[in-house]
Each structure stands twice: as C-alpha cells, then as structure tokens.
Design brief:
Strand order of the largest sheet: 1-2-4-3-5-6-7-8
CATH architecture: 3-Layer(aba) Sandwich
Number of domains: 1
Largest sheet: 8 strands, mixed
Shape: globular
CATH superfamily: Alpha/Beta hydrolase fold, catalytic domain
Structural class: alpha/beta
Radius of gyration: 20 Å
C-alpha cells in the first residue's frame, strides 16, 4: 500500500512538472512529437554553419556506403518534418539529408534578411557543399521546388539530379490560391482554429495523410504561426508577388541535369497545369501526375513519390559535353 502511494505521488509530481513545462513553453509538445517521428524514421539531428546561417537538419545513412545522397527541401510554411513519411518510404536505399531552410523551422532567422528564391538557392548550395558533399540528388517541394530549380541552374556542381514536386515559381492556370496571393493575402496564414483548418484544407484534398493535431498541440501551433505571420508575409511578398516570383521558371531552361516533375491532379495551391509549363523549359524531365492527392504529394502518396525518385536516380547521367 505504501509503494502504491509513492507511485501515485511520483506520477502526480511528474504530471505537475509536465504541465508547468508546457505552460512555460507550449510548443514543447509539438517538438516532442517531431522528435518521436524523427526517431521512428531512424533520422538523427544535426547542426551546422553554412552560407552565413546556422542550419538544423536531420540525416540518415544508406545501407550501401556508395549510395546517392538525397537532399530534401521543404516548402513555404513547411519544415524538415514534412519529409518523414517519404523518408520511411525510401527505406535505406539512399543517404538522406533533410534541412530546415534558413528562416524556417529550427534553422536561423535573421531580421530583414532576404529569403527569396535566389538567396535561398545560394545558401542551399553552401549547405550542400558542407553538409552533404555534392553533387547530390536535390528534391524540392512547393517553394522548396522553386529554390531547387534555381540551385540546379546556378550551382550545377552541387546538383547531379533535381526533382520538383508541386513546385512554385511558375505561372499556372488561375485558381483561388493564386488570386488571393496576388490580392495581397496570405492564404496559408494561421491565427486561430478556423484558419488552421482552412490551411490544412488547402494543402490536403482529403484526409489521406492529413496530420491530426489535437489540443493542446493545436493551440501551440496556432500561437507559433500567429507569431510568424509577419515573416511569412514578407517571404510571400518576394516569392509570390515580387520580381522573383517566376525566377525558377525563367532559370529552368538552364537545368541540364536529369530532372523529375511531379504533381498531384487535385493540387489547389500550385495548379497541376504548372507541370506542363515547367516541362517546356526542362524537356528532358520525367513527368509524373498523381491522382488522389492535393498539394502535399510527399505526405499523401509517399510510396508513389519514392518510386518516381527511384526512376529519376536510375536515369543515366548525360555524357560529358552533352547539351541534352
């Protein structure tokens, strides 16, 4: 009986300490869940200085020491955690290096710094050189796809192959998201429970792969996104409404590496018409149009995305001096 009372007392203390920790840092519960997902995927956390920024990233070795290295780059309002389901689908066929871009996630954010396509591509090239040891297979999603396109065009010494998943930086058929961006709005903005659900509704066409965010994690996430609102708008001003908004498309003609263009037919953010428009600039690209997923192909159909990446890696590299 005395032992039971001790156990109950210790549990009460532990619960009280946990409640205090969450009260002091509500986002700790989200970080704890991310850490659980990272460990489950066999990824290890790292930190490095590159290109003038402190980067946080995760990594996993391949089964074979000579396997290709994949660098996976998240999109607007995203983070390295978006890739964890795809990391599981890829297995240990490749070495994986998955960063938070500067300004996002756990990587360094500098007040007033430029986080547009060109600046991020240059920073990413420095990161690849230091952390991944290029040339690598560079896969970017959404904004990360636009950054990957610029990096592949401007830093070919670091990028052996490139994959653009639901990539931004290109004109596409008119949709509600694009109209809202051009009207000065942030369709991804989150300030309360309703806008969090609206944000997820835009990203996911149905419940497949859609994360469930129970209370109190939802409130912690809302508070963080509300605090990040001004930064998010400043980035969208550059990549969605500024002079750089079509820079990835403009530079895509200089991509000579084997390439992959992958979209989802039900994408409500970057309409699937963007695939064919990008393909005009990257004629050598393999094309994959998935059905039954929205903007988050990497989370909704990770196995199909993994197979497309396998095909990209299996494509022979162009011979030296070739212009194709």
């Amino acid at each position: 009986m005395r032992t039971l009372r001790w156990i109950i007392a210790l549990l009460s203390i532990a619960i009280a300490l946990l409640a205090i920790a969450i009260w002091r840092d509500p986002y700790a519960i989200v970080r704890a869940e991310y850490a659980r997902q990272r460990i489950a995927a066999g990824l290890t956390a790292h930190e490095i200085e590159a290109g003038g920024y402190r980067w946080r990233y995760v990594e996993r070795a391949a089964a074979a020491p000579d396997a290709p290295t994949l660098v996976l780059v998240h999109g607007y309002t995203g983070s390295k955690e978006n890739w964890y389901r795809l990391a599981e689908a890829l297995g240990h066929r490749y070495r994986l290096v998955i960063p938070d871009l500067p300004g996002w996630g756990e990587s360094e954010r500098k007040p007033g710094a430029n986080y547009g396509y060109a600046a991020q591509a240059d920073s990413l090239a420095a990161f690849i050189d230091k952390a991944a040891g290029g040339p690598v297979v560079l896969i970017g999603h959404s904004m990360g796809g636009g950054i990957a396109a610029v990096a592949a065009a401007r830093h070919p010494e670091e990028v052996a192959r490139v994959g653009l998943l639901n990539a931004s930086g290109v004109r596409f058929d008119d949709n509600r998201f694009g109209a809202d961006v051009l009207a000065g709005k942030n369709p991804f903005g989150v300030t309360d429970e309703a806008s969090l659900n609206a944000y997820l509704d835009i990203l996911f066409n149905d419940d497949t792969g859609r994360p469930r965010i129970p209370w109190p994690a939802s409130q912690a996430l809302i508070a963080k996104r509300r605090a990040d609102g001004a930064f998010e708008r400043s980035v969208l001003d550059r990549i969605g409404r500024g002079r750089e908004r079509f820079l990835p498309y403009e530079l895509a003609v200089d991509i000579r590496q084997p390439a992959l263009l992958l979209w989802c037919r039900q994408d409500r953010v970057i309409d699937a018409s963007a695939l064919a428009i990008y393909a005009q600039r990257i004629p050598q690209a393999q094309k994959a149009l998935l059905d039954g997923c929205g903007h988050m192909s990497l989370m909704q159909q990770p196995e199909a995305v993994a197979r497309a990446i396998d095909r990209l890696i299996q494509e022979p590299l162009p011979k030296p001096g070739s212009t194709s």
